[in-house]
Structures are given as C-alpha cells and as structure tokens.
TrEMBL record, chain B:
<feature type="transmembrane region" description="Helical">
    <location>
        <begin position="301"/>
        <end position="320"/>
    </location>
</feature>
<feature type="transmembrane region" description="Helical">
    <location>
        <begin position="219"/>
        <end position="239"/>
    </location>
</feature>
<feature type="transmembrane region" description="Helical">
    <location>
        <begin position="82"/>
        <end position="107"/>
    </location>
</feature>
<keyword id="KW-0309">Germination</keyword>
<comment type="similarity">
    <text>Belongs to the amino acid-polyamine-organocation (APC) superfamily. Spore germination protein (SGP) (TC 2.A.3.9) family.</text>
</comment>
<feature type="transmembrane region" description="Helical">
    <location>
        <begin position="268"/>
        <end position="289"/>
    </location>
</feature>
<protein>
    <submittedName>
        <fullName>Spore germination protein AB</fullName>
    </submittedName>
</protein>
<feature type="transmembrane region" description="Helical">
    <location>
        <begin position="142"/>
        <end position="164"/>
    </location>
</feature>
<keyword id="KW-1133">Transmembrane helix</keyword>
<feature type="transmembrane region" description="Helical">
    <location>
        <begin position="190"/>
        <end position="207"/>
    </location>
</feature>
<dbReference type="Pfam" id="PF03845">
    <property type="entry name" value="Spore_permease"/>
</dbReference>
<dbReference type="InterPro" id="IPR004761">
    <property type="entry name" value="Spore_GerAB"/>
</dbReference>
<feature type="transmembrane region" description="Helical">
    <location>
        <begin position="42"/>
        <end position="62"/>
    </location>
</feature>
<feature type="transmembrane region" description="Helical">
    <location>
        <begin position="12"/>
        <end position="30"/>
    </location>
</feature>
<keyword id="KW-0472">Membrane</keyword>
<keyword id="KW-0813">Transport</keyword>
<feature type="transmembrane region" description="Helical">
    <location>
        <begin position="119"/>
        <end position="135"/>
    </location>
</feature>
Length: 370, 360, 464
C-alpha cells in the first residue's frame, strides 16, 4: 500500500512543483551568447583590456561575430561589464581559445587569469591558450577576408595538426599543470597577425609566472621530441656535414625517446637516446642523384644523426643560459630525490646540466619514385 | 518489511552491498584529501584496504556470536537496555547526519556543475523520494540496486583513460617520500572515503551464508579499494602536486580530460551518473537508521521512513550558515570512525561477560 | 414414464423462452418419438443433418450406443449442455435424455500473423478458437506430458480457458501459484485474455507488461518446452506466457531461426533501442536547457539558429511534437488500412516540414523524434513498445526539470522499479541478475544454437 501511496505522492509533488520551476529563470539556448575566444591585453599593472568574441548565428546579422571589449581589473568584473553591453546572457561553456598579449605575459599576472577560468566548472578543458605578439583585441576585430568566423579560425589553427608538431597545444589544464609543477616551465604557442593571416611564429617560454623569451619552431620541435611526442613530421633539416649545403625534409616520422639520468643533483648529467624513423620526402643538395642505394642512405642517416645531435646540444646550451626547463628534464632528477622539490632546484639543475645525445635516424623509404 | 529472521542476502548481494556503500562522494575528492602526501598517495588506498580488512574481523566476529541480531540488538544485549537504547539513538542521529552530509556534498557539486543558478530544494526532494522508494523495498532491494549500480557505473572507469594517456608514470617515484606528520594527516582525512563497510554489522543477520560473510565482504572491500587505487594512481599521473592539493573534486577534472566526437564534456555525464553511487550508499545508511528506529519503538511502521527522510531534508536545507553545516558534517565524518572502534569495544565486553558467566 | 420427458421438455421450454434460435423438432423413429433440441446459431445445419437426423432415421441403435446419457432431472446441466452447442435428444419411449456434441460454430481459418510477422519460420498464427489454438501447439509438441487443464472463468460469461504446461519440466510452485491466482479472480466477464493477464499480474500498477503475450504457436511451444506455463482463452487470439523476464520482451522467435551473428546484432539493436528511445528526446531537452557544453560547438550553433525562431522552451517543444506523433499513430491505427497509410505519410511530412517552416519546431528535433518513434516499434511485443512510449514521458518531464541529473534520477527509478518487479514470483530482471550462468548464453548475444540447450533460469525448471 505504501508504495502505491509513494508513487502517487511523488507524481502529485512533481506536478505541483512544476509550477515553481518556472520561477527559476532558465535561459534557453537561443538567448545565450557562447563566448568562443577571450583576449587579455595589458593596460597597466592593475588593468587589463578584456575582449570576447561571440559567434552570431543569425543569418540576417551583418557580422557573424560579436566582439565586446572592456577595461577591467578583475576577470569576473569584466564579464559583468560585458553582460551590460550584450543583449544575451554570456556563458563560458564553449570557450575555446584564450589569448594573452606579449606585454601582459611578460609583466602581468597570467596565472591569476587562467586560474580564474580553471576554477569555473563551466569552462571545459579544451581551452587553448596562446600568446599574441601585438594586441589580442586587434586580432579579433580584424576582418580576415577568406575566413568566415574568427572563432573557428583561431581554434582550428591552434589545435593539433600534422604539420605543426612544434605547437605545444597548451590547453588550460596543461598550463596549470606546467606552471604549478616545479620541474616544468610552461610553453605557449606564439602567434602574430601577418597581413590577412594569423601565423604561429614560434613558442613563448615562461620562466616562473612570466614570459621569458620566444624560441623558433625548429627548437620548439626539439622540446616536443624530448617530451616524447610520437609524431614529429615534418622534420626540416639544414645540414652542412662535408657535402656542402644540404637541405632535407623528412615525413611520417615516428619518434621514441629514452632518457637516463645519473641521479646526481650536484653534477647533473643526462643521456638522451632519440630514435627517429621516417621517410625522406624531399632533398636538395650535392647527393641528389646518389640516394638510391641503401649504402648511400646509411651515410646520409649518419650525417643526419650528427646534425641533429649538434642541434640538440646547441639548444641545451641555450637552455643552460636561460635557466628554463620547458621539456621537464629535471623530472628525471626529482624522481630519485627524497624530500620536497623546489623551483630553485630546477633552475640550478638546468644551468648545470650536461647532456649526452645519441640520435638514431633511419630512413625507411624515399618515396615511390626511384 | 521482511521479518528479522529471514535470510535474504546471498553471496553476490553481500559483495556488492559492501562495495557500493563504500563508494560514494568520498572517492570524488580522495586525491585531494590525501594530498598532504603529494605524489606518494598512490598506494594509500591499498594500505586502507589492509586496515579495513583487519578492522572488519571484529565486526564479523561479534556478528557471528549473535547470528540473528543486528548491532542495535547487540548493543542492548551487551550494554543493558537503557544504555543500549541511548547509544542506538545516537547511532540513528549519526546515520542521519552522515547521509545528510553525503547528500549535501553531492547536491552542491551538482549545483555547481550540472544545475548552475538553480536552487537545490527541488532536486533534493526528488532525490529523497527516490531514496524512500528504494529503501522501502528492504535490504534485498537495496542490495540489488547496488549490484546494478556497480555494473552501470563501472563503465565510468573508461572515462579516465584520456587522463591516463596524458599522465606521467614518473610521478610515482620516488617512493616513500613523506614525513610522519603528512602521513597522519592523509590517514585522518582519507580513510573517511572508504568508510561504509562497517554497515555489515547491521545487515549481517540477513546474510544466508554467514560463515563465508567475511570472505564475501573482503571481496567487496577490495573491489572498492582497487577502484580507489586506480583513481589516486591516475590523479597522481595527471596532476601536479599543487593541483592535487587545490582541486577539490579531482575525479571531475579527470573526466574533463576526455571527449567523444559527439559529447564534448564527459564530466557532466559522469557526475550525474554518480547519483547511482550516492543513492546506493545513502539508501543503506537510511535503511540502517530505519532499523534503529524499529529497535527503539514498539510498533514498526513505514511512516518512520518518511519522518527520517524529512529530518534529512531539514538537515540538508537547514537555515543555518554553511559554515556550521560544514562543521557538523565534518564532525559526523569523524564520528564515523567510531564505528570502526565500536565492535572492538563490544568484543571486549563480550569476552568479559563470558568470563564472568564462567566464574559465577 | 413418458410423462417425465414431456415434463422436462415443458420445463425446458420455459427456461429457453426468448431464445428464439432454439430449434425443437419431433422425429418418429423405431424407438418411438424423439424430440431433438439444439441452438441453431451454435450448430451447423450440415452437422445436425449428418450426425443426428440421418442416423435417427436409419440406424438409431448407433446413436443410442454413442450418445452421452444425461440425468434428466438435472435441468441445470441440461441447459448448460444446450448452451455449449450440444444437441439434446429426448427419447420419450425409453424415457432417456441423450446429448451429442454438435458444437460447430463458424470459426476463422488459420491465417498469417499481422502483429508478429517474421520473414523466416512458420507463418501460422492462433485464431480465436480455443480448440484450434491448442491443436496448433499440440502439433508441435507431440508428447503425452504436455498437459492441458481446462477451466472456466468469468462469473457471468463462463469462458473456457486452458492452462498448458509440460508436466515434467514446469515448476510446480509456479503452477500452483498461477492456479491460485486464477481461482481467486472474481471478475464478471472477459472479452480478451489481456484482461485476464492484467488481473493475475504481480504488480498491476506497473507500466511494464509482466507476462509475455504472443499469437505465434512456434514461440509459445518453445516457451512450453522451456518450462513456462501458457494460458489460452476461448475467443481470444493471444496466448499468455508466464513467467517471463524483461529481456524476453525484446526477443523475437525469429532470432532462433536466423544465424547467431545476425540474431545477436538484431537483439542488441532492439534492446539498446529501448534505452535510446526513452533517452533521445530527453537528452535534447537537457542539452539545450541545462548543458549546452556537452554538444560540439558547430552543432550548437546550428541548433541556436534553428531554435532562434521557436517561441517556446525546449520541453514544450518536445512535448508538442511527441503529442503530434502520438496523434498520428493513433489516427493511423484507427483508419482503414489504405487511408491510414496516406494519412500517415501526409501527416508526417506535411506537419513536420510545415511546423519547422512556421518556426514552431527546430528541424533537428524532428529528426530525433522520428528516430525515437521508430525505435519504439522495435520490441517484438507490442505492449512493450507502448510501455516505452509511456516511460519516455517520465524521462522527458524529469529532463525538463533537472536536465541530465533528472534523467539519471529517472533512470535510477526505472532500474529500481524493474529490479523489484516480479513475474509470477520470479524476478523480472533476469538474466541481468542471472539466476543461472547459462542464461547469459541466450542474453543480448545469442550464442550458436548448440549451446542453447539449457533451460532458462527464470522458468525454474524441474531438475532431472
């Protein structure tokens, strides 16, 4: 009997309470402005310029993106200001890209901004972060003649793709992970407007909570290689190993890396073994017509190994000077260290670090033409 | 309601009852609670499992001495009628506050993720109605629900696979890199998450194969421990130490790492599906409270169930400050440890009594 | 002596006053006068002619040898016999009453099934005649252990029902349980067996059918062999199989005729189709009102665009279109077949496109609703497809209140409800809470036929 009663009461209660539900204002989808991109530009120490881009679905509207911009001291305050300007309710559950301009990255508090977004349960993990050279607002407001929507354009540009393996694709979790992890320094893609296009110019390296320097894509690719990214294509190599100037391009690369440390913090030393497998897609230089035997390819492989080893060593020398560790090499010392690990220890290790590099390239094929 | 002497629960029921009651809101924030150990928390759940296995033994032992009595009855027998009844009354209060704590914790999570900008009054009412519906079916119905819960929610383990791929194995090293103070802190806060197996003392009289109950309960405990272990392991791989310390619901963020092509945010699905786990554990606690009321009053009636649910509702929605509520729930959590120690006390009492009887 | 028969006839005539299709004829034979009484609507002319009148005229001894003799004073029985289609023969000289069963009311011939048609397998279906139905089953199971108990139910109509079971397989406890339930029925009349079914179900308030109903003799005999009990009722086409499980509602007998791989695929489709049909449209509501973040960005923008003209919230939109679909279904099933088809198509296309163009509905919703309506027809048991429609409304409402959280609450309710349901005392959710390991061989995946020998756990068959 009690079950019947229960069923009945629950139905009655539900239907009675259905009336109350109306009071809780639920904004339907079409009245929601889903922010796709947020850009933060530096004004002065306290203030930032917050710009948001909201895609506009209405076919009648002249522009397909709404852009709002306010100067603000707190992120949430800025959002409130924008709500005043917008006819719709601003939500962040489809936020895809956060842009930070270089000045802010160098001088301002990026961590606080990202942390604010990271705390918000509405914001997903797919938010990609990038550093803009000039001003983010300009980048958003500019009319790209061949791109229908800045929201999709930027997102597609920053997302992982085959030919931009150097791009760290730092999303909001990665950034928080890297910045709070003592063995790592965050890296972000560095983008700039180039005529009517946006281009990933390189990678911005942070030191502590602020941007320190930018590095070129070729060097950034080495970071990814050491971090263990599986696919590094295309690998662009400029060689000068006794055969004059040579240039070659490798494709379809499979990469595996093995790192061993000597577990000694005072005289840190790492042995890095890098195995690269791929196809030679293009070659320009002296040996152009001799590359059809396995022997000649083996010679070429050796030359590539030497060249890459030199490149990597050069890069580590640069890191030693900069005292930053974007590829998390000090993790190999933390693993064997008892006690708390501090950021200063990473700095110390990276400045003292000695590296032994051993690259093992194998060229699987040179394409289908002989 | 079935009578006291009926044996209802078979082996599978016991395994999954134990298992599902243990997994509630605790595991959601387990990595955060253990965060004083930093990366070394990985193996803590295994240690908890050992402790649970050891502390389970006195519970089963005292139960096997009174195969037809639940803990309320045993209290009355061993402590005398009045003292026993007073203690039982406190047990009921503890169960109510404890379940209210679980519900309130979960509902606030739901409010901040799935139902933003909405009051939780109506969801709580619906939740409680469903809870009453489950509990009124008796312990066997709860056990079956636990079983279904396990098979429905175990698929969520897959949701953590993205985080697993992204994580760093090297975080597990170095082993045993912590101080005694940190260990104590983690122990104190973390063990709460695996509480729930102590309810065996209440449904023990309903078990068919009481001799094998220890084994079956152990299987249930270790399934849960394994789930906890995977959670902490993946969290350690995926997060930095700062994140472990500062992200309250680590599991939620683990879910966030994944996506399907048609569903972008798995965390919402995961956290709403979690209601099964909450329902199964709170249902068991409420059932125990109901049994307690039955032991206090003469006449059994289902109306008490409604009254208990209403009390829970008022504890969850009480007009007091959030601060006080938090303190109350934390207090009730620590009181939960009492149930681990209580059977030991009873065992001692039992032995003393036996000795007295032999002497006299 | 002959006065007694005369008196009885007079008495009988009073009782049958007003039943104008009673035929009373006097025949003069070698054994004296014989009065023949029968009801012309229950007895065919040819039958009376060949079974009664010709023998009476020619070899009356034969009749006396064959015909059943009835106590002449027991007028009740005499009346009952008459109403059951027997012919009464009053031999005045011998002062005897003999009856011969001449029941030969016109019946339908055996035809194809329309509600449970299959591509492979036997095509015959039950008819409305109890005898035909029993014979259809007995043809398939030629075994003396197949028992057929006949009883009458309905305090006013005295309809015959038959309980069929395999004596060596059936669970006696179940059988006793069922007999008791049937005996306890106090209901005046039955027009179809589904009424009886509702009266003997374990939980009459549940939206789920707890017994299997089929008009296919092959599937019924298969269940009989498995140890189930089958109920037939005179004048109703379907047979009721009990006990049965939730999962069996998604099993078609064709699964056993198909190859195992195809059958497993179709079963999965039907079974998960049930969950899809109750989840798709509520998902739309939750995603649009509460959790836009779970949908991909591009899809969301599409949705925003198509929703921008719709004046009401998603829940009203969904309820609106669902109701239209219900109306279309109901109207289609009431209309004559030829008209119904056209109306269905016209209604579907015209209302659907027009509603989208008028801005009443978003076009994505039309796709979802049409899919879920189609999915709801997947279960081979029509009652289950009706149930899925009802349950869907519960999910729609709860999704309207609390989004995905509400859906999960409703799902928890559904699970708890289902696992507490029983069919003739056996849990309804087998084989998901398996009673036997072998049940899993014939679960969502149907294993090759040679592994399917074991009886199902739910029938609790007698152990050999």
């Amino acid at each position: 009997m009690s079950r019947k009663f229960l069923c009945l009461t629950s139905f009655v209660v539900l239907f009675l309470l259905a009336g109350c539900a109306d009071k809780e204002l639920k904004v339907p989808l079409e009245d929601v402005g889903m922010v796709g991109i947020m850009a933060f530009d530096y004004i002065d120490e306290d203030k930032t310029q917050l710009t948001v881009a909201i895609p506009q679905y209405s076919p009648q509207a002249e522009q397909n993106t709404q852009i709002f911009s306010v100067a603000t001291d707190l992120v949430s305050n800025g959002i409130v200001e924008i709500e005043k300007l917008s006819d719709k309710k601003i939500v962040f559950n489809q936020l895809r890209v956060v842009l930070v301009n270089e000045e802010l990255a160098r001088n301002g508090d990026v961590l606080k901004i990202i942390q604010h977004l990271y705390r918000n349960a509405e914001v997903g993990n797919k938010v990609l972060i990038a550093v803009v050279k000039e001003r983010g607002e300009e980048m958003l407001r500019y009319k790209y003649p061949d791109k229908p929507n800045i929201n999709f354009y930027l997102n597609d540009l920053l997302e992982p793709s085959i030919n931009t393996a150097f791009n760290p694709n730092t999303n909001i979790h990665d950034f928080m992970y890297e910045i709070t992890n003592p063995v790592l320094d965050p890296i972000l893609p560095f983008i700039d407007k180039n005529n009517d296009k946006i281009e990933i110019k390189g990678v911005a390296v942070f030191k502590g909570n602020n941007m320190f320097d930018t590095i070129k894509p070729e060097e950034a690719l080495l970071i990814q290689a050491i971090k263990g990214r599986k696919n590094l294509a295309p690998l662009d190599i400029n060689m000068n190993q006794g055969h004059g100037k040579e240039r070659l391009m490798m494709d379809l690369i499979e990469n595996s890396v093995k790192i061993k440390s000597n577990k000694n913090i005072d005289t840190p030393k790492l042995t890095i073994k890098l195995k690269i497998k791929g196809t030679l897609s293009e070659y320009k230089g002296e040996r152009e017509n001799k590359l059809n035997t396995t022997d000649s390819l083996a010679v070429l492989e050796d030359d590539v190994n030497k060249e890459l080893e030199e490149d990597i060593k050069k890069f580590f020398a640069k890191l030693n000077d900069m005292k930053v560790d974007p590829s998390g090499l000090s993790e190999y010392f933390r693993m064997y260290h008892h006690g708390k690990w501090k950021k200063e220890m990473t700095r110390e290790i990276i400045s003292k670090l000695e590296v032994d590099v051993e690259v093992n390239t194998s060229i699987i094929s040179t394409g289908t033409l002989r | 309601m079935s009578t006291n002497n009926k044996k209802l629960l078979n082996a599978y029921h016991v395994v999954f009852l134990t298992q599902s009651i243990m997994i509630g809101t605790g595991i959601l924030s387990l990595p955060q609670k253990l965060s004083s150990l930093g990366y070394n928390q990985t193996f803590m759940p295994l240690l908890f499992g050992v402790i649970a296995s050891v502390t389970l033994w006195p519970m089963i032992w005292i139960g096997s001495k009174y195969p037809d009595a639940n803990l309320y009855r045993i209290n009355e027998i061993l402590l005398g009628k009045w003292l026993g009844k007073t203690i039982n009354f406190f047990f009921i209060l503890q169960f109510l506050v404890f379940s209210a704590g679980i519900i309130s914790n979960y509902m606030h999570l739901i409010q901040s993720t799935a139902l933003p900008e909405q009051t939780i009054t109506l969801p709580v009412i619906c939740f409680l109605l469903l809870l009453i519906y489950i509990v009124s079916g008796g312990i066997k119905s709860i056990a079956r629900f636990c079983m279904m819960t396990f098979f429905i929610t175990i698929g969520m383990m897959f949701f953590t696979s993205w985080a697993f791929q992204k994580g760093e194995m090297s975080h597990f090293l170095p082993l045993f890199n912590f101080t005694g103070g940190e260990f104590y802190e983690a122990m104190k806060k973390g063990y709460l998450s695996i509480l729930g197996y102590e309810l065996i003392m209440f449904y023990y009289p309903y078990i068919v194969q009481q001799k094998k109950a220890y084994k079956h309960t152990l299987i249930g405990i270790w399934i849960s421990i394994f789930v906890c272990f995977i959670t902490t392991a993946i969290s350690v791989m995926y997060y930095s130490e700062w994140q472990l310390k500062n992200i309250e619901f680590s599991v939620l963020n683990l879910f966030k790492a994944g996506e399907f092509s048609f569903v972008e945010r798995i965390d919402i699905i995961g956290i709403t599906l979690w209601v099964f786990l909450i329902l199964s554990s709170v249902a068991a606690y409420l059932w125990c409270a109901k049994k307690g009321v039955d032991s206090l009053v003469v006449k059994n009636s289902n109306a008490y169930l409604y009254i208990l649910a209403i009390i829970i509702f008022f504890v969850v929605k009480m007009p007091l400050s959030r601060n006080f509520q938090d303190k109350l729930f934390t207090a009730s959590n620590y009181v939960g440890y009492m149930f681990i120690i209580w059977p030991l006390l009873l065992v001692i009492l039992y032995v003393l009594r036996k000795k007295k009887q032999v002497q006299s | 002596m002959s006065e007694t028969t005369q008196q009885v006839i007079e008495l009988l005539k009073k009782e049958i006053h007003g039943i104008d299709d009673v035929v009373i004829k006097k025949v003069y034979t070698e054994e004296g006068n014989v009065t023949v009484i029968y009801i012309s609507s229950l007895v065919e002319k040819m039958t009376v002619q060949s079974m009664i009148f010709i023998p009476l005229a020619n070899h009356i001894r034969q009749i006396l040898r064959v015909a059943e003799s009835v106590d002449i004073k027991n007028i009740e029985i005499v009346l009952q016999k008459l109403n059951a289609g027997h012919t009464l023969l009053f031999f005045h000289q011998l002062n005897q009453l003999r009856t011969i069963d001449t029941y030969s009311a016109p019946t339908r011939s055996i035809t194809n099934t329309e509600t449970e048609s299959t591509v492979i397998g036997p095509q015959d279906a039950f008819t409305e005649s109890l005898e035909t139905n029993i014979s259809l089953v007995k043809r398939r199971i030629q075994n003396p252990l197949l028992k057929t108990e006949i009883r009458t139910v309905g305090t006013e109509t005295n309809i015959k029902i038959s309980i069929m079971y395999m004596d060596n397989i059936v669970n006696k406890e179940n059988l006793e349980n069922l007999r008791e339930r049937i005996d306890n029925i106090d209901y005046p009349y039955f027009t179809d067996i589904s009424e009886l079914k509702q009266l003997i179900e374990d939980n009459p308030l549940s939206p789920f059918p707890q017994y299997y109903m089929s008009v296919r003799p092959d599937s019924v005999s298969q269940y009989l062999i498995d140890g189930r009990i089958v109920l037939f009722m005179d004048n109703s086409q379907a047979a009721v199989v009990c006990p049965t499980s939730f999962f069996e509602m998604f099993i078609s007998i064709e699964d056993y005729y198909n190859r195992w791989s195809t059958a497993s695929l179709l079963r999965m489709l039907r079974f998960f189709g049930f969950f899809l049909t109750i989840m798709i449209t509520p998902m739309y509501i939750s995603a649009l009102t509460f959790h836009p973040e779970i949908l991909p960005y591009e899809l969301l923008l599409n949705l925003q665009e198509s929703r921008s003209k719709v004046p009401f919230p998603p829940i009203i939109e969904v309820l609106f279109i669902e109701l239209i679909i219900e109306v279309l279904r109901e109207a289609g099933s009431r209309m004559p077949a030829k008209v119904g088809q056209t109306i269905g198509i016209v209604g579907g296309i015209v209302i659907g496109t027009a509603a989208v163009e008028a801005g009443l509905l978003s076009n994505i919703l039309i796709v979802l609703v049409a899919t879920s309506a189609l999915l709801s027809f997947l279960p081979p048991i029509f009652l289950m497809s009706n149930t899925s429609r009802f349950v869907r409304y519960i999910f729609i409402l709860s999704a309207g209140f609390f989004g995905l959280f509400g859906q999960m609450l409703a799902f928890a309710w559904l699970i708890n409800h289902l696992q507490n349901l029983k069919s003739l005392g056996t849990p309804y959710m087998t084989p998901f809470i398996p009673r036997k390991a072998t049940d899993l061989l014939d679960g969502v995946i149907r294993f090759p036929t040679k592994y399917l020998m074991a009886k199902k756990g739910i029938s609790r068959a007698q152990k050999k």
